[in-house]
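Encode chain A's predicted structure.
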Amino acid sequence: MIAALVVTFMLVNFADKSVLGLAAVPVMDDLHISNSTYGLISSSFAVLFSLSGLVVGFVSARVSCRALLFVMAAVWAVAQLPVVFVASVPTLVAGRVLLGAAEGPAASMSMHALYKWFPEGRRGLPSALQISGAALGTLIAAPVLTWVIGAFGWRSAFAALALASVVWSLAWWSAGHDGPYGQERAPGAASEPAPPRRLPYRKLLLNGTVLGSIAGAFGASWALALSQAWLPAYLRTQLGMSPGASAALISGVSAFSFVLLLAVSPVVDALNRRGVSGRWSSGAPQGIAVAVAALAMAAFPLAGARWLLLALLAVAFGAHAIAFPLHYMTTAAVVPPAQRGAVFGVVAATGTLPGLIAPYLTGRLLDSASSQSAGYTQAFLLSAAVMMVCGLVALSAIRPERDVRRLAAAS
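Encoded structure for chain A:
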């Protein structure tokens, strides 16, 4: 039941994130704004996103996940309302800033809540289900919200999401509570020695596994931020797709991510139970996934056939998804349970910084390039370079067993 509620939480979360991108063309037309201004609005979502993730991560050591997730979802509902009543750039910015502040801790705290119900060695599938809620959010939101926008206007989509957040928060307050794995390491959960009960945060945050996990999250988040802010507009303005066809393709990319997440997670759990090191069971896959997505994105300008470009789009904006559950797993492997929420908050805060950078930077490139087509090419190549570096860092730095031994020896 908790897993189902957490999946639904992430579904609403990513529908909230996606709505502005899905409404990008009518918003820009209705408010008469430039690509740079739209990019600034989109990036405003991330102004407090990382900071709130960091702060709430430390608060989670003293406040229950039940209360934290309830407050987050309630604030989501409030954040969607300003633009429903007054459609303007300031209200859009205000709503996105507040929404970002409330959604910054969402992924890390819902994963923390989930981990309280599953022991180490059994977290692959629950982690994938949590992240799959994000894929489902985009998969479902794209056609549904596109229809709502077309039928009732783009502001109605924001109102519908406010209602969804209210319904979820009431359901969670009624049924959600913390599980038994919040403080103690499950007996026999891993063959490697556990880290001590508490360690200085400096040591936890500067070990290779946590830094590599942050790198993997950063690269994956860059692709995610780019897709949420600019992929719908790219499909409509550059590929000439209708709103319905664009929504269908975005749903298809999300479906690919969903299938990939569910296919990889049982393999990760099986490898963990057989004693395969965390470096190869969950570290290497996230680095490889981000690197492969980067290669696909770099190949966009070389795709002559339309079908090949669409396939590359699916890989570039879908393959990175497996990095999200895996980077939490590798981080959790080296962090004492009592400090897990705080470290998750730090990892989320730094790993999701692309949400602040990528949308606005892309808008600037579009406005400064000789053509929109050239601007998109520059943005995709820059993104591919960032993602490739992040993927290689994750691949080389994540070594949970080694870092657990080092932390235990240093305590």
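The chain has a mean pLDDT of 87.
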